Model the fold of this input.
Amino acid sequence: MSDGTIQVCVVGKDSASNWQLEGTATGASWTKDTVAPNATITNAPSDPGNTTTLNITIAGTGVTHYRYKIREAADLACTNSTNYGAETAVATAISNSITSLADGTVQICVIGRDDAGNYQSFASSTSTSWTKDTAAPTATLSGAPSGSVNTT
Done:
């Protein structure tokens, strides 16, 4: 059966072959939902950026919960289920400190879940990446006059 409202109705018959009246049938209905949602990511750090504490929001049509992982380039890909954290409600932003991560490419991978318990697959996880750059530049000066000169 395809997704949508499913209903079952039951009529009974006794040992004397008396059928329950048609209008008094017992019934139940529910919604079948097997389609996983797709999470969306907002407020990711700018690229490049010197952000060291995240404030990332997860949403998406039908998404009520999510799991995520933050990875550096050498870590396992988003499609690998290893290192995803515990289930979190979408009302809770991702606020991890990434101070301990090396400068370079940082990626966040997210899978969403809906009220029916359908999880987005790891193969279709939502992700975004940016370049973390917290190293201050070193200024250099060239072409300056040397010694005592009357240069204006």
User: Anything to note?
Assistant: The radius of gyration is 29 Å.
